Amino acid sequence: MITDQLLLDYQRCDRRAYLDLWGDRAHRDPPSDYLRKLHQDGQRHREQVLANHLYTIPSYPDQAWQAGAEATEILMAEGVDAIHQPILLYTDTEITYLSQPDLLVKYPGSSRWGDWSYRPVSIRLGKRPKLDYQIVAAFQAYLLGQVQAALPDTALIILREKGSYRVDLEMRLPQLQEILQACLAMLRSQQQPEVFISRNRCELCHWFSYCYATAQRQHHLSLLPGVTPNRYSQLRAVGITTLEALAQISPLQLAKCTGFDQVIAVKLVRQAQATLYQQPILITDQLQTNRSPHRSEVYAPPDWPASPFAGTEVAERLPLALTLPAAPVEFYFDVESEPDLNLTYLHGVLVVDRIQHTETFYSLLADEVGAEEQVWRRFLALTDRYPDAPIFHFCPYEVQVVQQLAQAYATPPALVQRLLPRFIDIHAWVTRTVTLPIENYALKSIARWLGFNWRDAEANGAQAVCWYNQWLQTGDRRYLEAIQRYNEDDCRATYHVKQWLTEFIAHRVDRQLTTG
Predict the structure, then answer these.
(1) d(Cα 453, Cα 447) in Å, to the nearest integer?
(2) CA–CA separation, 86 vs 100, rounded Å?
(3) Are 371 and 260 within one domain?
């Protein structure tokens, strides 16, 4: 049976679709708090949309698909204006296709029942009409066409922010047929598709732990930063399927392959070497191609051979003399926001005073939704107390928030112009100066590799959003306290990474100067 959900999952990950059909359910992860929140948000959006429609619900027992399809067709034959929770069922030889659009909406047209027809409507939480949504909508239109003996003129997707979107069926139906054929071929083969870990796509999947463990056992190249699905296909095409093979190839040779240029080739080979030998590499170091895995030095010895790119321009290389800014007083800054409420409710600032040898953490918290401006003013007052202190943060988000809050609360332009140059992105410094033996360059991955641990091991940005919503619903301050701990640990992790990177660069430069 091919369903809406199976087709949606297949487009995002063929392995998930396979495991949902053939996998051992004991290996599935329980849903996270954040996934539950997404489901709740989706249901709330669906209820808000449905509140604007008058509809009829077909009567049938739960999961009695044939009975549901028959009940739906009775309502369609009666010509009711809208049908909620319909069942569209169609069997073609040995394959059964099942669809459950959110609505079927009547419009003037032609069908086997008379001078009316129906369109399928999908209600989606997403902000844009992604291709996978459109393919599922085309699937619903295709099955509806089989049921009513007339293809609908369009299929509708109702999005959370952009409202109704009309799917171009003339474009999407041929794509649907190709995807269906590929999906059926994969499912019939009963051969588990190769694992590929993509963090932004996999982490909410209930098979993530199972697939991640498989990838780790295989030392799969998808665990290497910079190896996208397209690049992995291109690496396989030239016979590079292992970490060792990628670490040993000449970047010049890789750069000649389709899909790779000089900069990408250098980055991938350097990343493979750092991961294979579990040692950091300064980006200004000469790239090595014959290193022994038994060497234990953290820094490259001078007898290593010259880089294959010696004398060429590599965009991300930095002068060895370049060092991170330092000051008597430094800020380490991290914010927490609730995107659905467009609210920044927490500014965490770790103030490191190197003269007084103190570390003071300020948790500037809006414990009411309307207190955002008050917290913003407190942050500005704190930064004004130390006008020369650099403000270290991780990734551009904090600067974006500062710019948004400055505009929202009419902050004097002169103040903003003095404040913004003080921000220093540690993530940018890490990625431009060093290659680390890690799976991604998120703060947690880097800091944990350096030995830093969060007090709440499972805490992350998504969990913080859930905690804040639970605080709003229950008034239980333990949720706020958990967010504050997590926020402080993020600030201290940023400080930890900055300290390590400063020492690493200085040590490496000293060794190069010493060895000449």
Answers:
(1) 7
(2) 6
(3) no
